[in-house]
Amino acid sequence: MTEPIRYPQEPVELPYQEPPLEPAPVEGCAGCRELANVRDRARAGNDQTTVTDCNVLMARHPEGHG
Questions:
Q1: Disordered: where is this region (predicted)?
Q2: What is the mean predicted confidence (pLDDT) over 43-63?
Q3: Measured distance CA(12)–CA(23) in Å, rounded
Q4: pTM (2 decimals)?
Q5: Are the C-beta atoms of 59 and 23 separated by less than 8 Å?
């Protein structure tokens, strides 16, 4: 039997980080509002992939708002 691995120090305990907030639709933008609506329906249907996709698209969307 081999000797167990010994580490020189205790493991590092990382602080808890809140998940990032979801992007909010830009007021007056039909594209942002539609993405938020799709995201809401996807969340109601427990479709987390679509929720994430909508968040990514909405976070990238403001390039047309600047």
A1: 1-21
A2: 91
A3: 32
A4: 0.65
A5: yes
